[in-house]
Amino acid sequence: MSAPLVHGYEVVIGFETHAQLSTQSKIFSRASTAFGAEPNTQACAVDLALPGTLPVMNKGAVERAIQLGLALGSHIAERSIFARKNYFYPDLPKGYQISQFEIPVVQGGEVSFFLEQGKETLHKTVRLVRAHLEEDAGKSLHEDSSLGASTGDGRGQSGIDLNRAGTPLLEIVTEPDMRSSGEAVAYAKELHKIVTWIGICDGNMQEGSFRCDANVSVRKPGAALGTRREIKNLNSFKFMQQAIDYEVRWQIDQIEDGHAIEQATVLFDPDTGETRAMRTKEDAADYRYFPDPDLPPLVIGRDWVERVKSEMAELPRVMAERFVKDYALPEYDATQLTQSKATAAYFEATAKACGQPKLASNWIMGEVSRRLNSGEVTFDNIPVSAAQLGALISRISDNTISNSAARQVFEGLWNGEGEVDAIIEAKGLKQINDTGALEAIIDEVLASNPKNVEEFKAGNAKALNGLVGPIMKASKGKANPAQVNELLMKKLS
Asked: Where would a tag sit more exposed on the chain, N or C end, judged by fewer CB atoms within 10 A?
């Protein structure tokens, strides 16, 4: 299916994502990376760029880069180079950032995900260009912060916090493969899932652990790529979609009004829902990259890669494939159930408890997910255990209760009213499976609804619904629907 056009224009989006790595210390120093410390209490001489200091590579950061490469099906370079990216900004004491340019540690790879588009569920794949290691900059704090207080004469001040300077990052860069804001958000969510699943990043977007930059351009179908504008530091999936949608509309309006798009870095203002230009966008030449003379090439032996591979937990895409194979689940179900380790573990435990994996999937993706999404509850403190849900599904499978009654039982489980069988007994929810009792109810309903009977026998199949409803009502919802339909058809034939 082709990408939807916006006012006759094709949207082109590429992503750069900065994932803060979950190491205890910084990438080139031993200073702590813990979040929330008082400003400038976790910045050492290396981070401050004091004369005579030298960077020392953090092995843990490299190991996490290897994990990402393995998770994304990338090539892990046996030899990669660190470079100096030169720019001058208050929160960068050295006057340059140590990054990777020509030879990154992770090369290629892809991220696949499902995308809801209209009534269709599409399988999408975004190609990756690279993922390279680099150090984070510090943080500028303005008048609303402890470091940036007002002067009292109406003029604001800014302060610099270098706690974040030197925090290890992986910058993950895609090809411009996305064609809508919905597709971009779906990609970002999938990448977020992967980095948190393998444990290389905590994924906290509010704290800046997972920051996304969206490169957005528009073009007429078949035309060359348009000029892109980069939306910086999108820290929520909601704002990500809003920012891209606004930027697309703005660029189209500019072009339609006869204005050229200028390459720029822009910021999104959640209060106004608008993007605004911050500065003209630099190109690689502006940064004057050159190999860092203080750092030797990063050499990664295949034995190191194989060791990391052997120690990694089952990846979500591998687990999803196993769910399809072992539990005969649709690919869509398997993907949804592997959005987190907790969801996957809950499903497997439920499926093993009841022996009905598809029903287990339906309940988890339906009733369970609905309740988790609407409250404070997570899989860590869910009031209905996998064993209890499995027991509930077993009672549906053996026709002890109907689907509608099962929802009442689930409500009882959620509220802590006891175990499955006890709730069924207490609420009187057992299905009527006794043929004689059902036939008596059916005979009574047929006798009191002669018009529906005549219409059905005359060929109006919908008239059957007018009989099933009263039967279920007369049985107080306890009749087995399948059995009701079977007996009805026999009596009406």
From this structure: C
